TrEMBL record:
Residues 3-88 form the RNA helicase aquarius N-terminal domain. It comes from Brassica oleracea var. oleracea. This is RNA helicase aquarius N-terminal domain-containing protein. InterPro entries: Aquarius_N.
């Protein structure tokens, strides 16, 4: 699944579901690389960050984008998927490599 995120079609779909906020969960290096590869997202990223910061300030909260549910959506989804696989969800006799 992680390699699928490098596919343009897949990443567009994931972005539409999770939004740019989920990119806060990327490592700094990976985040910079993705922005360099997709320069059209830089303006959207800056606008989204400013909007989120303004919303947090208006509520009297500290702006910490990496802890928001939207920022952790994809990471949480992948972690949950891996946990399910680790707990042997496949019945005996079923070859998981076919799935």
């Amino acid at each position: 699944m992680l390699q699928s995120l490098e596919d343009g079609v897949v990443i567009e779909t994931v972005l539409s579901l999770a939004g740019l906020q989920s990119w806060h969960s990327l490592s700094y290096g990976r985040f910079q690389m993705e922005l360099c590869l997709q320069p059209d997202l830089i303006k959207k990223w800056k606008r989204s960050s400013k909007k989120s910061a303004a919303e947090a300030m208006s509520k009297g909260e500290q702006f910490d984008p990496s802890s928001s549910p939207k920022a952790n959506f994809v990471r949480g989804l992948i972690e949950e998927f891996v946990d399910v696989l680790d707990h042997g969800v496949f019945a005996d006799g079923v070859d998981a490599s076919y799935l």
